[in-house]
Amino acid sequence: MMEKIISYIKNSKSELGKVIFPTKEQVRNAFVSVLVVVTIISLFLALVDFVMSLILKVVL
């Protein structure tokens, strides 16, 4: 049982060494990209909501 745990820990350390972590620039670029896309989609949905509410006011 103890051998399995030791083997698991060694394999985990080995796999963790293969991980490539993003640089600060990559993280910043991804953050800005997500922020821009979310902002654009939010503005679009707000516009659609506004137009639909105007249409409903006219119909009702």
Features:
60 residues; mainly alpha; 2 helices; elongated
Structural write-up:
The protein is mainly α and 60 residues long. It has a domain of 39 residues. Helices cover 88% and strands 0% of the residues. The longest helix is centred in the last third of the chain and has 36 residues. The protein is elongated and about 75 Å long. The mean pLDDT is 96.
Report the biggest beta sheet as strand number plus sense, adding barrel if it closes. none
Mean pLDDT: 96
Helix and strand sequence: HH
Low-confidence spans: none
Strand content: under 5%
In whole angstroms, the N-to-C terminal distance is 73 Å
| Helix share, percent | over 70%
Determine the structural class based on helices, strands and strand pairing. Answer: mainly alpha
Number of strands: 0
Q: How many helical stretches?
A: 2
State the oligomer.
single chain
Report Rg: 25 Å
Shape: elongated
Summary?
This protein is mainly alpha-helical. It has two helices and no strands.
